[in-house]
User: Fold these one by one.
Assistant:
Number 1:
Amino acid sequence: MGTVLSESRYSDGTGAFGGARVKKLLVMMPAYNEAASVAGVVAGVRASLPEATVLVINDGSGDATAAEAARAGAVVLDLPVNLGIGGAEQAGYRYAAQRGFDAVVRVDADGQHPAGEIHKLLERLEAGDVDLVVGSRFLEHPAGAYRPGRLRRLGIGFYAKLIGLITRRRVTDPTSGFRAANRRAIVRFAERYPEDYPEPESLVYAYRLGLRVAEVPVAMLARQASVSSINIPVGAYYAIKVTLAILIDLLRSYKRRPS
Amino acid sequence: MMGEGVVASVDTFRAVSITISVLFMLAVIEFIRRNRLKERYAILWLGAGVVLIVLSGWGTLLVDLTRRLGFDVPLNALSLVILFFLIVIVFHFSIAISMESDRTKRLAQEIALLKERLRRVAPEAPPDGPAE
């Protein structure tokens, strides 16, 4: 099942998207101080998916991230203040919702997510039975694959257990930001999306909205330029914050809309 | 030194303190649930609630703390703890408000710059948005 992209605009506007091929694809990357790597990542995506629109959301960077992204040929949303990953990502979903894209692939601007792996997410999405596809580092273990540090694995394991308990589905990589969303997910995420580090929370949120989530095995690389924005005290704070957010989200009731 | 009467009233005091703390925490959670309060700003309140519950409910912790601080009644010790949390939380808010006012200023400037550019690019556009 190949990924065929054409310039034709998404037209029916119903949000319906079942088993259909992706016609209008947006590849988005939230970027905070990624001037050193963003141009290379944009160029990589444009080379492997020439028909896709590449959107860089510059999250109030203090460096030349926006200029570098534009130079590499990306559409740039230049946020005047820093919103955090969740807020920046939601800006991308809102762009996709307004401009009628029928699929969004989210990749990191630091080069962790190889452009050559995007087709794996799209193929799964095009099967039409899921709304959100998450690329997982842990479903397969090819030699030389990226392995996060021990503390990070501990956090990932904790969220995987917590989310598994809540959604009753196997989740192996809850902090992966390498994802593909269809029109149905785009519209819901444009309305409301978790803040700060949204990945684990957004999985529970998607489940609660009635969106169908699936993981596919992907390879990821070590970061190209920057270091992780999470250190130990900040990590501990977010662990508490995200856990609290996930648990309180369970007390909310959501209207599930038909697909 | 604490008299018999004071020690006897500690249990009632504990119960009241725990009840109020639990009700308060439930209120905080309800506000988060309704999207009226962000987790970011609720964590300190919930932390204060947990500390008050532990302090009031855990063995002789409250009585020990009262003695150690040289107070006669547990209410004084608890008041001091509450005061500490209030100072931390209010200071935290002062910092948060300062950051927000900076962000608001930036946003306003950005919009003004955009409006100026829009007027140059599309002069037929109405010169002013709604005045505020």
Number 2:
Amino acid sequence: MDNLLFALNVIVPIFVLLLVGSIARHLDWIKITTLNDLNRFIFKLPLPLMLFFNIYNMDRDTQFTNDSIKLVLLIIGVFTGIAVFGSFILNRTTKLDSSQKGVLVQAWFRGNTIIFGLPLATSLYGENGLTIVSIIIITAIASSNVIAVILLELYRGENIKAKQLTISVIKNPLLIAAFLGFIFYLINISIPSIILTPLMTLGKTATPLAFIVLGGTLELSKLGKNFKLIIVGSLGRLVGTPLLLVGIGWAIGLRGNYIGSIIAAMATPVAVVSYTMSREMGGDGELAGQIVVVSTFLSVFTLFLWIFFAKTYGIL
Amino acid sequence: MNNFVFALNIIFPIFILLMIGYLVSHIGWMSKKSLKNLNGFIFRLLLPLMLFINIYSMDKASVVSDEAIKTIAAIYLTLICIASVMALILNRTTDLKNSQKGVIIQAWFRGNTIIYGLPVVLSIYGQSSLDKVNLVIISIVPLINVLAVIVLQLYRGKSLNFLAMLLSIIKNPLIIGTALGFAFFYLNIKIPAIILKPITDLSKTATPMAFIVLGGTLELSKIGKNLNLIIFSCIGRLIVTPLIALLVLLAFGVEGVYLGTAVSCLAAPSAVGSFTMASEMDGDADLASLIVVISTVVSVVSIFFWVLVLKTLNLL
């Protein structure tokens, strides 16, 4: 019961923001063209800033044990595997549009790590038990962003050459931000607070505004049309990917808190930014938005089951 | 010298946001039309939410001392008188447009209390003083917002009868935000955390987004045409109003940390919200935005001067 309540505590705030966006749109406080422009702005600036600061502010005291290195490789490996094999299977067995395939595969590996994973892990392990979870979260954020950029760029539909593809990937705001974040972190460049403060403030607008845009542009009446894809995208995210991570993690010798932390941080619904990004990169934005909303809703039940399962087997 | 550096520390972040707004608009990430529409959204939703949250989350335990009440009374009296007298003078002696008069009067009484006044107070008196003067600072915000709504509405040009005017004031989003804030505060209505959190997150996007919009729509080329009005407004904002307030406060027998707090808050440059509001309420938005920017620049010098005055008066 507690687990169910907890899941509700995380998703209700999200639905409040979606609702506010929807109301603002229907009262005509904000126009659809403005929401489109705002989405581009979020994609170009607040979102990259958020990613940059996630990496830049990484904990410097983290000790890398054998197991945590395994964990990092596991996440990168599984995400890459899902992207490669997922695309391969969709290309071979379905007649979906390129714009849909990219969105679907993205949904499988790109979870809402910060909004869901972090609070869930905190409630399970407490503020001091977050070392493993932080490793997972930062690895997942960095790798899922990079892989998503490449994936969506590949599915953009235009038949482009490798060189052009590379250029457009490198020019992506999120990749630039991730790259700069690592550079600043590794070289230990400290940013003066007079520049840090406004940029961080702006980075923090990314998530609430992205939900407002999604809420304002979402058309629930169109859920039916994409029903199968939405379900496949959501369940892949909420059940498939965490199962893969836990299974392979177990196989390579991870146990206890490592497995528990994977569940806490990785069994989360699809990230709102996958909607923001799909729209800006030629993906099926509508489908991406629907998967975000439906997977968020379904996560109440799947998270409950995951935690129940983990407790039954003594992992949590 | 320290004061000088300190003032730079406050205004530099503001200029970074303005510059980003300018770039966003000129690179074409957001069209002018969208920025204008976004401004409406900030006015109708984000600013009222911010006001609401500010009032709602006031600390009930914060000290309601006689000294604090006296300070607040003196500030209210000063600002209301300044607004009324300025309206009288401008109506009698000038042939300015109504849209300009409203903006000038607003500039005289409406400073950037939270972003500018609060940090100044903290740097002078330290975090520990906040318990004492918190109430004073928080009380200024609703007053200047309500006053601004009244002034801008009165100068909106349509000749309305008293009742219609009253109605249009009551229907203003900022008034509604303020009223609801006080209602919730006094009736002790507790908002569940799952709703409070997302709307608080959303309210925090108000200020950065307002600066982005201001930066994106700023027309520096219009400085020349408006130069006299800008100078007049900035002198009022940065010098005359705090000076009158200082005298009234002294007459009321306010001293020490209370006096310093009041003067610091009232000597802050023009608030970004005054641009947001002027633009939505048929005021001269170009003039309002130039006043915000120029008073912010000049404040580096004027706040330095005010801290010196307070020191000389042995108030610090």
Number 3:
Amino acid sequence: MLSTDSYAALLAQSRNAGADFAEVYVERWRRRQLRTIDGRVEEATSGIQLGAGIRLFFGEDVVYGYTNDLSDAALSELVASLASVRGAGDDVGRPDAAGRGGIDLRKLDAGPDVHAPTVPFEAHDKRWRLERLRELDAGARIAPEIKQVEGRLLEWEQDVWIANSEGAYVEDRRVRTRLIGFAIASDGSETQTGHAGPGLSMGLELLEKYDPAAVGRKAAELAMTNLRAKPAPAGTMPVVLGNGFGGVIFHEALGHLLETTGVARNASALSGMVGQQIASPVVTYVDDGTTPNGWGSSRFDDEAAPTERTVLINKGVLESYMVDRWGALKTGYRPTGSGRRQDYTFAPTSRMRNTFVTAGDTPKEKLFEGIEFGLYAKTLGGGQVRPGSGEYNFAVNEGYIIRDGEIAEPVRGAMLLGKGPDSIKKIVAVSDDLSNEPGMCGSLSGSLPVEVGQPHLLVSDIVVGGEA
Amino acid sequence: MKVTEAKAWLLARAGERGVELEVLATTDRKLSIEAQKGAVNDVSLSSSGGIGLRVVTDGRVGYAYTEELSEAALAWTLDEAIANAELQEDGSVTLPAGGALGRFELVDEGLSAPLQEKKAATIALEGKLAADGRVQSVQYAGYMERESEVEIASTTGVDGAFRTGLASLYSALVMREGDSVKQGYERDAQREFHQLDPGRTAQESLRKLGRHLGAKPLATGRRRAVFEPDVVATLLALFTYAVSGKNLAEGTSRLEGKLGQKVASELITIVDDATLPHGLGSRPFDAEGTPAKRLVIVEEGVLRSFLHNSDTAARTGQANTGHAKRSYRSTLDVGTSNLLLLPGGGVTLDSGVLVTDLMGVHAGANPITGDVSVQAMGMELVGGEQRPVEDFAISFNLFELLERVEQVGADVEPVAGFSGFAYVPSLAVADLSFAGS
């Protein structure tokens, strides 16, 4: 987007102002969103997002600024403002002579882009997209109780250019597509909802991989299940967590605690525990930014570091945190290509990519054996965690009672809660049916696409919030 | 191009192509400062914005936005907006006719203090927090200010602008006492920098979080509950889903057909007041240029009005209440300005559980049905004493809960939440489901 000379000049100016490290991040997105309700267009919108974020390190201190004005003059003024808010009267780092001679940028090559779309952003007209959402709508009409169906198609094409004062320069294009079905079922007295939402790093070929009608049907089936569900029981009980989006429990209760953003501030309940047994030995937990077409994949992170597959927990032993540049500087841990941000309006922090518990060898059916009374949390909704205390909570979207080792009647409104570091010790068995699902994760550096995943898991006891 | 030129360019092109166009432009300036260990360690500043287009052609509406103001980008954006409109089969939308609204200044010199003073306030906040022996980590201690210039213009004559802003101090803490560890957030937002007080924010942060240390598990059962203003603001934000004219028009409001009927205890009066003097959410007009006014939503338990913009008003046959909400990146919605729950006779703190904080409301609450099941933090009320309790969730239906309110607090607190600004007292209900151990 900018010329190589522009990047080099901004980085040199930053170094001359005393910055120990400088980074220029430029981004341009094109987005489309189409939303239908009952097959009619409810909302059609498109947009261009464009901006630059400049980050300067003074030792471990960081100043960050962004603007939509990408002229050389405006960006140079931003660097000057950042240096000035840092303050001449403060203890600024001294100009580094090496920074004065200009910065020799070298483009990093990550090889072929395994996530590249096969259908380009300009392909098909809007009418074609609308027809796909109408197929989703038709697929959801499985019962007279289905009162309303919403379909959504999201298309993102994000181009990023990142240059830093160490001479690294990368260009990356991230194309993501997501199809979401949302169904409302009502029998006159009760109203319940269900949704399904596949998404991957690819173009509109997503709709060949996931038949829109099947996505609609899945959302509707969940709404129908919840309609006949009884209020969930409350209390402490064994819980079998479903595969796929069931992995959100680990995302919330474990993943967030392993980001150096919290670890470095000693604000994670799992700070300083590398090499220690922190989870049950049946748990191996991985964060992989390289999964081909993964919703949370990219070739480079948002700090110009190549992404990688990071084993976080190996057989219960903590092996690595998720480490961004600032986290590496602060903690000394090896960077893992985990610096991510929603867009140029955020400085990057350490974040998850595609994070999952690896498969075990227990057949799924075995997990239920011997449970007199418990909860099968087949699919989960979102949740929240306080990394300092590890306290988490999340909603069960589709739940069933387990009675005498059998999956019994559906229940709704259940909430799982507890402390992550306790719960991960209580995982007693892991099945062999790993799957991943897309979601959006909100944290300090904004809302990001991530995958969560796991096989079916048995947790010996979790507090279930429901109707007392 | 600059914003003013881009606006004029777009309105002219829209005229040539025979479509109606409304342009909403926002320019934001933000500054944030964070401190650690007695010094500023993180500063962020920005100026950014963009232009949002709402096109109407033959009654059909389409949106697009751009932050790139080149002619090529503006042309792509207008093309997309028109194509998005043409995708609809039919429609009866019209842009509201308007006139010159003028330019309003809501910030004045409120944020003009020197940078050094803002840094000093941030450092003072961090220092006062870190000085407490129970604080294991000050994750964040920060200052944030934002100024926004909002401009709106349309081919149907609307033309106006206003500048607004706010300043806030915030903290995120981890506190420990023995084995008990608690984490919490606090934020104080004001119109002007000089209304902030690092000492007050630190004290509130430490009091609100520190009281939970040493919490004991709460047994499962039904009890009386008293909700603190922060929690009440969250519940009200959830309630606004049901009074949104947009959700009414889309058929997802649980309060459809309930105008004039009793939907809450007679102790409950809910107002949205965009004209509240010095209110954090005050504005001279909404996102379509409709002048602001005070709106009674629920009066002594009776539903008096939904929140409407011009479109939802037309679709439901109700009056436009001037609650259009839109950022340049989003489509037209409705939203609150300053949401008020009027104070009552006071709440008694002699029995039950004082609910101080809800976690995971975005996941545990269904705004359509009103079913809520969320993890909470609180204090058990035993006689005149408050004892911290943990590891429990509360479950209720919001609409039933509002009908069962037995007391409303006498003192209103401002709450600057993620979903807007509220001025609310505490609430008490006689009987609530608590799930614990």
